[in-house]
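Researcher: Structure prediction, please.
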Amino acid sequence: MDTRPHPAGTSACQRLSVPARRLWFGLATAAAAWIALGCLDIVIAWRACTHQYDYGIPDPHPTARVALTVLACALLIVGIAAGIASYRNWQSLATAPGLLDTLAVDRREFMAVMGIIVSVTLGMGMFWLALPPFFLDLCWRAR
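Model: Predicted structure follows.
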C-alpha cells in the first residue's frame, strides 16, 4: 500500500475511502442527463410540431419552449453537480498536487478524472443544445 503523504496531508488509507457509488455518480450522471435532455428535446419538439402541422397553428404553444428551457436548466444543474462530485472525488484520491499534473494510474482516481472530463464535455453539450430554442422556432430547428 502506498504510504506517501497526500498533498493535503491525508494518508493513503484515507484517500481510498471514496465509495464506489460516489465514483459512479460522478462518472455516469452527466452522461445520463445529456441523453435525457436529447431525448426530451426530440419528444417535445416532435409533439409541438405535430400539433402545429395538424391544426395549422402558426407557432407551437409557448409552453413547449418553456418546458425545454426548464428541463435544460434542471439537467444542466444535474451535470454540474456530477462534475463537482467528480472533482471532490479526485481531490480525495489525488496523488498529484494539481489536476493537470495527475496521471490517474489508480482505477478510482482514473474514474474521478474521467468524471470531470465527461461532466465538462457533456455540460457544454447540454448548454449548446439548450440555446437554439431562444433564437429559432422549435419546428425550424427540428427540420
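Model: Confidence is low (pLDDT under 50) at residues 1-5.
Researcher: Thanks, that helps.
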